[in-house]
Amino acid sequence: AVPPPPSSNLRGSWEALRAEAMVCTRCDLHKCATQTVFGEGPLDARIMFVGEQPGDQEDLAGRPFVGPAGQIFDAALERAGIDRAGVYVTNAVKHFKFVLRGKRRIHSRPDTGEIDACRWWVDNERSLIRPPLTVALGATAARSLLHKSVTISRVRGEPLALPDGGGECWVTVHPSFLLRIPEEDRKREEQALFVRDLERIKARA
Ligand code: URA
C-alpha cells in the first residue's frame, strides 16, 4: 500500500490538540474565562500571527481577534494585501484574563507564569503548522515565542530566529496599541508603520 503523505492526518492532530486545549488547567485563567480560545486558520498557512490573549468579545465568541482589536488587525491586513483567510491566527495565552469593574470585564495583562504555562499550546500549534513566518503581535507574544522579554521598538521590522529553530519570527506592535493612541496624526503614522511591517512580512512569505 502507498504510505500516506506525512501530513495526511494533520487536521485530525490539530483537532485533537484543540480538544485538549478546551479543557486546559495549566494555569488558573480557565477558572474565570468562558472558554479556551484556540487558534484558527488553514493548517498549511505560511504566516502565523500570535496575539496576546482573547479579549471580552473573543472570550464569548470562542474565536481570536473578532473584537475591536480584531477590526484594526483586519483593516491593516487588508491594506497590506494579506488575506486573513490564508493565515493562521492564535494567541500566546488562550484564556481571557480580566478584572471585574461593576459588570464590565476589564482586560488584565497575563503574567510571565501564565505566558510560560500557555507556551505549550503555541509550541504545539507551531509544530503542526510549521509556518515559515511567525509574527508576534506585541510584547506578550514576543515573550512567548522568544522566551525572553524584548522592547518592540528595538526588534521590530527585522527577522529574528526562534529559539527552537522553527523559522523566522517577526515582532510588531499589538493592534490594541493603535486603538489606544488618542491623537489622530500619531495614530495614522503608527497604523502606517504597522501596515509597513505587514507588507514586509508578506514579501517574505
Ligand atoms: N487581543 C489579542 O491579543 N487577541 C485577541 O484575540 C483579541 C484581542
State the gist of this model:
This protein has one domain: Uracil-DNA Glycosylase, subunit E, CATH 3.40.470.10. It is built from eight helices and seven strands, in the order αβααβββαβααββαα. It has helices spanning 10-22, 56-61, 68-80, 112-129, 139-146, 152-155, 175-179, 184-204, and strands at 47-51, 88-91, 98-101, 104-107, 133-137, 160-161, 168-172.
Question: Any idea what the shape is?
Answer: globular
CATH class descriptor: Alpha Beta
Under CATH, the topology is which?
A: Uracil-DNA Glycosylase, subunit E
The secondary-structure element order is HEHHEEEHEHHEEHH
- At CATH level 2, the architecture is 3-Layer(aba) Sandwich
Describe the biggest sheet?
A: 5 strands, mixed
N→C terminal distance: 35 Å
- In the sheet with the most strands, the strands line up as 2-1-5-7-6
The molecules bound to the chains, other than polymers, are: uracil
The radius of gyration computed from the alpha-carbon positions, rounded to a whole number of angstroms, is: 17 Å
Helical run tally: 8
The percent of residues in helical segments reads 40-55%
Structural class: alpha/beta
Number of strands: 7
Family: Belongs to the uracil-DNA glycosylase (UDG) superfamily. Type 4 (UDGa) family.
Protein name: Type-4 uracil-DNA glycosylase
Domain Uracil-DNA glycosylase-like: 38-199
